[in-house]
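Input C-alpha cells:
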C-alpha cells in the first residue's frame, strides 16, 4: 500500500521505559517465556503487539521474550466469533481456545474448549498475562449494578480470581461515562485483596503516532506479590506524558489520491445545462432534502416500504431533517445546486447505493467544515444514522469499534478499504495468514479488536511494572 511506514511505537515505548525493563531482564535472566490468555480477543491484536514489543526489547536490551497464547475466547457469543477464532488459530497457534467466555465453570475449573472439543482446565497457575475486552452495557440483559450490566466484566474477574495471572489488562469499549465508575468499583471490590490496579482514561492511538481517534479506558492490574502500586502508576505515567508524536494526517498516512479538482469545485454550484440533463435522465432524486423519495434508491425500512410510503415516520429521514434544522442548512434542501453525489456520479465515481448514505454525504458536503472539498480532512462513518454519525475534520479517522464501520473520505470520494482500516488500526495484513478470511469478516474483526499500539502500550507498561518491583519473579 502507498504511504509512509507505520509509526515505530514499540521502539518509543521500550526506550521510554528502558530502565525498569532492564531491571526486568536482571530479574528473569536473558530469556523468558510468558503465557497469555486473551478473552473477547477479536483478532488478538495483543498477541501481535507482543511480538513487536519482544523484537524491540531483544534489540535494545538483549532480553528474549517469547509470548505463548495459551487460550482465551472470541468476542462474546456472537455469530462472527468463529471467524475470529479461525484467524487466531491460523496466526497464533493457541493450545486451547473457546468461542464463548460464558461457558466456564469456576467450581470445577473447567471450560468448553473449541480446539480440543472437550472440557479443558482453567489453569490455576502459570498464566502470566490476562487480557479482556469489556463492552459497555449489553442490551437486552437484566441490569445489575447501578443499572449497568457487566456480565463480561464479571466473567473476566472470576477468571482472574481462578487463574491468578501475574498481570492483567481490561479494555472498556466506549468513552468515560457512568459505566466507567461502575466498572472500576466492581474491579476494586472484587480484586483489591490480591491485585493493585489503575485506570487509564482516554487513551487513544493518536497518542501513539496513528491518525486514528479511538478513545478507550484501560484498567491495568498486577498481583500484589509481583507489582507495587506506585510502580504501576509511575511507569504508565511515564508512557502517558511522553506520547509518540503524530506526524501524519490519515491522508498522508494512507497516501490517498484526491478527486479531480474541477469536478469537486462544482458541488453547491448550479449545474451546467449539460450536467442538469444528465442528472435528469439518471432518474435519481436523492438530494440534500431527506424527504425526497428517490425511485432509484428506495429506502428498505418498514415505513418507506408501505404501498403509501410513510416517509415522515422513517427514522433516518427524521434524524436528517432535525440535523438540517440544527445546523441551519434548510436553505440547501432545494436550492437546485449540484449535490456531492451528483458530482461524483458525473465524474463516473462509485457512490453508495443506500438512500440514507447518499443523503448523509449530500448534507455533510454542504457543511462549512467540508470546504473546500479539494482539501478537506472530513471523514465520516456513513454506517451510522445522522444523529450518531462520527465525523472528524482534524486529519484523524474516528474508529469507534463498531464492527461495520464505513469510513467515507470526502476528499477521496470513496470508502476506506479494509487494508486501509487495518493500517489505521496498527495491523499489517501483509504478514498475517488470511486463510478463510473474507473482507467483510476482516472488517468485523478489526472492529472487534483493540488497537495494536494501545495493546503494545499496555504490555510495555506492565512489563516495566513487574521489572521495577522489588519483589522476586515468581518462577
Ligand atoms: Zn483445550
Ligand atoms: Zn437516488
Ligand atoms: Zn425509510
Amino acid at each position: 500500500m502507498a504511504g509512509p511506514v507505520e509509526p515505530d511505537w514499540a521502539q518509543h515505548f521500550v526506550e521510554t521505559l528502558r530502565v525498569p525493563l532492564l531491571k526486568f531482564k536482571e530479574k528473569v535472566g536473558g530469556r523468558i517465556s510468558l503465557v497469555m490468555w486473551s478473552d473477547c480477543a477479536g483478532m488478538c491484536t495483543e498477541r501481535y503487539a507482543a511480538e513487536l514489543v519482544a523484537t524491540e526489547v531483544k534489540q535494545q536490551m538483549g532480553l528474549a521474550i517469547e509470548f505463548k497464547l495459551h487460550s482465551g475466547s472470541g468476542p462474546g457469543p456472537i455469530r462472527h466469533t468463529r471467524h475470529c477464532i479461525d484467524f487466531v488459530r491460523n496466526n497464533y497457534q493457541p493450545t486451547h481456545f473457546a468461542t464463548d467466555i460464558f461457558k466456564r465453570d469456576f467450581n470445577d475449573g473447567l471450560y468448553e474448549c473449541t480446539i480440543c472439543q472437550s472440557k479443558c482446565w482453567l489453569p490455576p497457575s502459570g498464566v502470566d498475562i490476562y487480557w479482556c475486552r469489556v463492552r459497555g452495557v449489553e442490551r437486552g440483559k437484566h441490569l445489575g449494578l447501578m443499572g449497568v450490566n457487566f456480565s463480561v466484566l464479571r466473567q473476566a474477574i472470576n477468571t482472574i480470581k481462578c487463574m491468578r495471572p501475574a498481570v492483567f489488562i481490561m479494555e472498556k469499549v466506549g468513552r468515560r461515562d457512568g459505566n466507567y465508575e461502575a466498572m472500576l468499583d466492581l474491579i476494586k471490590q472484587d480484586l483489591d485483596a490480591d491485585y493493585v490496579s489503575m485506570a487509564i482514561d482516554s487513551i487513544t492511538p493518536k497518542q501513539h503516532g496513528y491518525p486514528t481517534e479511538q478513545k478507550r479506558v484501560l484498567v491495568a492490574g498486577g498481583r500484589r506479590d509481583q507489582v507495587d502500586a506506585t510502580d504501576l502508576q509511575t511507569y504508565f505515567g511515564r508512557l502517558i506524558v511522553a506520547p509518540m508524536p503524530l506526524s501524519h494526517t490519515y491522508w498522508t498516512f494512507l497516501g490517498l489520491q484526491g478527486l479531480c479538482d474541477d469536478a469537486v469545485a462544482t458541488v453547491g454550484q448550479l449545474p451546467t445545462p449539460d450536467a442538469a440533463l444528465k442528472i435528469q435522465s439518471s432518474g435519481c432524486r436523492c438530494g440534500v432534502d431527506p424527504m425526497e423519495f428517490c425511485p432509484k434508491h428506495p429506502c428498505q425500512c418498514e415505513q418507506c416500504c408501505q404501498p403509501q410510503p410513510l416517509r415522515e415516520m422513517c427514522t433516518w429521514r427524521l434524524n436528517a431533517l432535525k440535523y438540517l434544522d440544527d445546523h441551519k442548512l434548510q436553505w440547501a434542501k432545494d436550492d437546485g445546486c449540484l449535490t456531492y453525489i451528483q458530482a461524483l456520479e458525473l465524474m463516473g465515481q462509485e457512490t453508495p447505493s443506500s438512500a440514507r448514505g447518499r443523503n448523509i454525504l449530500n448534507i455533510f458536503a454542504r457543511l462549512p467544515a467540508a470546504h473546500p472539498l479539494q482539501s478537506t480532512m472530513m471523514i465520516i462513518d456513513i454506517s451510522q444514522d445522522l444523529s450518531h454519525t462520527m465525523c472528524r475534520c482534524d486529519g484523524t479517522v474516528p474508529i469507534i469499534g463498531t464492527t461495520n464501520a464505513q469510513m467515507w473520505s470526502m476528499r477521496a470520494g470513496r470508502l476506506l478499504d479494509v487494508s486501509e482500516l487495518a493500517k489505521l488500526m496498527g495491523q499489517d495484513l501483509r504478514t498475517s495468514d488470511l486463510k478463510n478470511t473474507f473482507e467483510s469478516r476482516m472488517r468485523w474483526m478489526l472492529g472487534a479488536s483493540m488497537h495494536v499500539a494501545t495493546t503494545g502500550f499496555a504490555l510495555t507498561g506492565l512489563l516495566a511494572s513487574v521489572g521495577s518491583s522489588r519483589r522476586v519473579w515468581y518462577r
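Residues 139-147 have pLDDT under 50 and may be disordered. Residues 259-411 form one domain.
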